[in-house]
Amino acid sequence: MAASSAAKQALGALDKESFVTLLGKLIGESKFVQNNPPELIPEEDRIVRHVLDTLLPYSTSTGGGPLVINHVTYKPNRGNLIVEYPGTEPNKILSFVGMHMDVVTANPSDWDFDPFSLSIDGDKLRGRGTTDCLGHVALVAELMKKLGETKPQLKSSVVAVFIASEENSSIPGVGVDALVKDGLLDKLKQGPLFWIDTADKQPCIGTGGMIPWKLHVTGKLFHSGLPHKAINPFELAMEAVKEIQLRFYKDFPPHPKEQVYGFATPSTMKPTQWSYPGGGINQIPAECTVSGDVRLTPFYSVLDVLKKLQEYVEDINENIEKLDTRGPVSKYVLPDENLRGRYAFVD
Fold first, then answer.
1. Is 201 among the domain residues?
2. Maximum alpha-carbon separation in the chain
3. How far, in whole angstroms, is CA 156 from its chain's centroid?
4. What is the pTM for the complete model shown?
5. Cys-Cys with 40: which of 36, 92, 286, 315 at CB 3.0–4.6 Å?
6. Amino acid 338: pLDDT
7. Do 189 and 218 lie in a common domain?
8. Do 189 and 228 fall into the same domain?
9. How confident is the model at residue 203 (pLDDT cuts 50, 70, 90)?
10. 12 with 125, same domain?
11. 347 is annotated as an active-site residue
12. Which of the residues 29, 45, 84, 166 is marked catalytic?
């Protein structure tokens, strides 16, 4: 306890002016770290540069301090940053992981203020990323800076892992998944690890995991004036997603522990994006793709969900005639042509 108190005394309170200054720089980059490929591919190194400006003066690479900094990049302009303050005992470690340097999209016309610059309203800090998650990036960067400045004697090493590509995983091998694959986070298993990320303003001790999914639907292209000769993939997709959702909520209903731990919502499965190859308004397309996510509370198994989703699709494909149709000529099977609509989860 004495060592802990001494560390707290050495670190002191958060330097609010320094924190707000850094956060302002990060929010100023938020327009360029929106993550929604292929239209918006973030450049997390814009954030990395500001964090490095803060920490390099206290690093071994400049000779200015004890911080060991590793800038790890798998894709151009999309870096991760691992920062370590070494402790005195080799096998003791404490880590903060998950401070991600990308943000979800923001349409300025939907905001009452500029989302891509930091503004202050009373005690509120406003801008895209203040809570998810550039605020956490700034906060933990300030913590590591303070460690580098004050150099307290700690038994445990303190590691901060600032990651790329958290908000969208459609481009793999960029962020924490690649770091884990390369073994760069293996030593964090030796001690407590805190995942620092929340999309709300209240303290968070647990959150729902995210499973992205993409359902490709195949129908039959034909002129919309002769819909009885087509298999409409839009109609097929809507009915399939409805059926998958009904089965999901039956198999993964609200869990009693969600109320105990204060979860705002139970596990959910829903569509969030829709795409198709294009064509005229008088043409029923041959295919479309529906994408979305599962938000799973930690009281259910991810592997169980993945297995169930695949089972749902296989069963619907086998019994596609049983799906509800839409109108007198809507159909998902064309027996004379030996054609059936079909679904498949794709990467």
1. no
2. 82
3. 29
4. 0.68
5. 36
6. 94
7. no
8. no
9. low
10. yes
11. no
12. 166
